[in-house]
Amino acid sequence: MAFLTVGGAWLLALTIDGDIIFLLGLLADLARLSARGIVDLADAVWIASGFASVRWLAPVAAMVSFQLWFSYRHLDANRPDRADGVSVHRSLGLPNLVTLGRGALLAALSGFAALTPRPEIAWLPAVLYGTACGMDLLDGFLARRSERTTLLGAKLDLAIDTTGFLVAPVVGVLWHQLPVWYLSLSAARYLFKLGCWFRNRQGKPVFDLPPSLLRRPLAGIQMGFITFALIPIVPLSTVRPLAAVVLAASLAVFVRDYFAVAGTHPSDGV
Is Transmembrane among the key words of this record (predicted)? Predict the structure, then answer.
């Protein structure tokens, strides 16, 4: 699929006061990354759904715009993690481009929230989200293999993961593939951030999120479960009890993490 077509990987650069600004190159690369694949998928949706593809494009455009803004805002973090005073990389690098490819897939997925399920497009949400989840393993592997782990990469990875946990459950609920109460998973991350913001606002301490042996595995389980739930031949009666189990575990970790950053619950690294 043309989502992975990025053209040149290197960005144009301007140097101002020793800081490298990548706006032109960023727009060029992300335009190739997002627009080419989205146009291809739009053609498929148009063939299957006719004028409904116009509704599909609206949320897709909003998601792509957000990803462009987020990437530009954090360009100064495109440098090695745990390395102060190191110059910013002159290119986004393949790992970050793969992460942005995941974002393009999730942007395409968001458009299905505006469509009515039809046999011609019924499998596309599961394929899009499942592919994006598989690429989540690839970008981290490439970053470690090429020694190109960056603060920007970590920020993008978290933002894209959070986007996926928002978009995919919404599509699943609207397409009657997930129970409506599963949307509490989508809300949990934002409620966590809101709680931290309120503590800062009140002058209360907000401690660093401690490492955990459960956080990433549970996220992976959620990704696998959501992909399974989006498969059109899986009945809601099968999904509902499984959703209750995986959701309860993830919400418990969110609550545990909030108590940890609030300093009211000691973390043992679990």
Answer: yes
Residue type, 234: V
- 264 secondary structure, DSSP code: S
Q: Angle between the 94-110 and 52-73 helix axes, to the nearest 10 degrees? A: 150
Which CATH number belongs to the domain containing residue 189 in this structure?
Answer: 1.20.120
Q: How far apart are CA 189 and CA 165, in angstroms?
A: 9
Residue 229 lies in a domain: yes
> Tokens for 7?
């053209």
Query: Which runs of consecutive H residues, i.e. helices, occur in 74-183?
Result: 94-110, 124-145, 151-174
Phi/psi zone of residue 222: left (φ > 0), alpha (ψ -120 to 50 degrees), beta? alpha
Instruction: Report the chain's C-alpha Rg in angstroms.
Output: 19
- Show the CA angle centred on residue 24, arms to residues 20 and 25, nearest 5°: 75
83 in any annotated domain: no
Do the domain assignments include residue 12? no
- CB contact burial 32-64 (16+ within 10 A = b; e otherwise): bbbebbbeebbeebeebbeebbebbbebbeebb
Measured CA to CA, the distance from residue 22 to residue 121 in angstroms comes to 37
Q: Which amino acid is at 205?
A: P
Query: Which amino acid belongs to residue 115?
Result: L
pLDDT in tens, 83-135: 556 677 777 778 888 888 999 999 999 999 998 898 888 999 999 999 999 99
